[in-house]
Here is the input.
Amino acid sequence: MGILRTTFAIAGYGSLASTASWLLLTRQSTMRDIPKSDYIFNHTLFARYNPSNNPVTQDICVRRVQLKKIKPELLEGGEDGRLVEAFCQGVWGGLGYAYQRRFLEKKYRGPETAHQIWDRKELQTSKYEVGTQITDHFEVVSRTPTSIIVRCGDSPRNLDVRESDGLFEMVAEVKEAEGVAEFGLKSVFYNGVAIPEAGKVLDEPMGPWIQWLHGQYDKLLMETSLRGKVLR
Here is the structure.
């Protein structure tokens, strides 16, 4: 998780995390635990990539936005997934992901990854269909009108069960009765390879400090995505 530490520090938010400025920026985004009953833990993707059902580090960043503050064209034709698509475009093509994108580009962009999306303009306009590979670190593995799930943790060129693996879901659901849309960034990380010894339990892949940093990064991705692609 070294890239997470570096990304957070270079982005300049490490020093803001305890300041009024950071709290003001992210005050409407809330970090929560994912309920054990959540569908992601019963998803075929989770079973496929975590076959030993190893311990996970998990959380979800949630943000609710009044419908009147959202670009109206994103609320038209709700069944086509226009809102979650714009949210996803904002996550990968926004300022929050800019440093990590450049970091990965310097290391991994080349002829063997030319089929993946790298440039900010393309990240901001992609349809994120299943199979789309993002900066040699993410691959879209599921898409519905309200959800886009990417596999993360290693290069999508590595098709095997991985030591560093995870699912990252972007969710956008309209709740008309409440007059809001609820956006979520859901993360589930695990070691898919490890097999625990008899009588022993594996540790979660992230310690508390790294998980806290990850939560702050999620808040950054949430705010820059909504401000860049979703809000009027």
